[in-house]
Amino acid sequence: MNIINSYRLMIRNVRVNTDPGTLVFLVLMPTIYLIFMGYMFGTLISQIPVGTTSINYREFLSPGIAAFETATAGIVAGGLLWSDRRYGMFEQILSSPYTRAEYLFGILLTTLVFGFLGSGIMMLVSEAFLNYTPISLEGIGLIVVSISLGSLFFGCMFLAIAAKVKSNQAYNSLTILIIFLVDFASTVFYPISPTTPEALKVLFYINPLTYIADVVRAGYTSTIVGTDLVELMVTVIETIAMVAIAVLLYKKVRVGVT
Which of 17, 49, 119, 139 could disulfide-pair with 66, CB 3.0 to 4.6 Å? Predict the structure, then answer.
């Protein structure tokens, strides 16, 4: 596999997805969540325990929104494969001096780019509007690892869906359903509490975004405890499993068939 070819495909993918619609979905919608929910819910919720300390709601929400950007980046990855298959670009690219492995790696690189781009923008918005404290070097390292894993997990998940679904309507419906489910059935907007219904707790604990949000929040607030490292390891295991599933299904994608 030629890494340069994957890099070229990544540049092509980024250019294709820098249209206004993608940028609105990647930046504007999370910013609206951050500002409106941060200020409105922030007046209703005082302090939330995180690790060994307590933080206000806006400090709780901001890293959660940054973590959610990994799921948004995953949609970009799945959308690339789906649109390339639908419009014949997948066949044309593989007819050029590019291999299947290079194409796949190019999409995963694109997912990482959009994951870090979206998360970074949300961090900057937070610092500009919500006046947070500086992040420690250890916290930055934890955030980088978690964002990388989250982007790869959701990128591979949506790639797997794009590899199997043959209807545009079915793909769009599944994407919308999954993105809202993983968003709201996680600790992005609110913590798990003793009064949370058991059925919802199950959804929270099987949702990878819960662990990604918790670890990003721990790094963001520099309140890293043992459970955060356990959640990071769970994310590593889930990401490895999802990468394996995506690669297996991707290998079965037939050129010229949608």
Answer: 119
